[in-house]
C-alpha cells in the first residue's frame, strides 16, 4: 500500500521517519510532507497515487478526490468531517475515519478560558495597562454561580460541563441525545428555548449538520438575556454570524467569543465580528495544543494500522 500524509500535522521529521520505518517493515510505502498546502492542484499531486491518505482540516473536494483513483481509505486528523466530500467517498468506496477524542480537553479548556476572559476582560485590561491605563471603574463578574447552558453534550460538551461544575457554576443542557452520565453529574436537560432564556453563558458544542446549521440565529438570540454571553468553539455556521454581529452591536447580548467562523482565518478586515470590541476572537486554535497533537498522531496512525 502507498500511504501518504499530505501535511505535517505538527509531527517532527524524526517522528515521521519512525513511521516510515514502521510501514516499511510491514511492506508499505510511506510518504510525508512537512508543510501545509491547501490548493487543490498540490493536494491532488500529493494524493494521486495514494491508497491511504492522512489529512486534517484541509478542504477535500470532489475535484481533488476524482484525481485519486487508487484511494481506499482516509484517516482524518480532525473531529469534524464537514470539510470532506463524504458523498463522493461513499459512492466510490473510500472509507473515512475521524480522530474523535484527541482534542476533548483542549477545546473544553479554551471554551472555559474564553468565558473567564469575557467575564473578567483579561485581554482588554492587559492592553489598557500596557498603554499606561489602570483599572478605572471596571468591575468583572465571577463564573461561580452563573448558569451556563451547554448546547450539545458529546465528549467536548460533557468535558466542558465538568470543568464548569468545578468552578461552581450551574450547568443546564440541550442535546439531540440526552446522556444518563451527564444527568448523573447534576446537569439538567431542557428544551433549547428554555436554556437560552435561563443562561448567563451559552456554550456551543454541536457538530455541523443540516439540523444545527444556523441554530443560533435571530430568533435564538432574541431569547437570550441582554447580559448573556455566547461562546462558539464548535463550528462557525452553527451561528448566523450576521445575526450575532448585529446583536452585539445593538447590545442585545453582552458579549461573545468565537474560535470558529464561516471560513478559516485569516478573516477579512471588515468581518462583522471584528467590528465590535464585544467579541473575543481566536484563529481556530481550540484543538491545537502540544498534548492534543501528540494524541492525534497516535489516533490517526493507529487507525491506519487497524485498517491495514
Overview of this structure, please?
With 308 residues, this protein is an alpha/beta fold. The protein folds into two domains: 2-102 and 289-307, Rossmann fold (3-Layer(aba) Sandwich), CATH 3.40.50; 104-281, Rossmann fold (3-Layer(aba) Sandwich), CATH 3.40.50. Helices cover 37% and strands 15% of the residues. The chain has twelve helices and twelve strands. The strands form two sheets. It has a seven-stranded parallel β-sheet with strand order 8-7-6-9-10-11-12, sandwiched between helices. It has a five-stranded parallel β-sheet with strand order 2-1-3-4-5. Helix 5 crosses helix 7. The protein starts with a strand and ends with a helix. The mean pLDDT is 96.
Tally of extended strands? 12
**Model regions low in confidence, pLDDT < 50 over at least 5 residues:** none
**Can you tell me the number of structural domains?**
2
Distance between the termini: 9 Å
| Physical arrangement of strands within the biggest beta sheet | 8-7-6-9-10-11-12
Global structural class: alpha/beta
Distinct helical segment count: 12
Topology at a glance:
Elements: E1 2-5, H1 13-25, E2 29-32, H2 40-47, E3 52-55, H3 62-65, E4 73-76, H4 86-91, E5 95-97, H5 104-120, H6 122-130, E6 147-151, H7 155-166, E7 170-174, H8 180-184, E8 188-189, H9 192-198, E9 201-204, H10 218-223, E10 229-232, H11 241-249, E11 255-258, E12 279-281, H12 290-307
Parallel strand pairs: 1-2, 1-3, 3-4, 4-5, 6-7, 6-9, 7-8, 9-10, 10-11, 11-12
Helix pairs in contact: 5-7
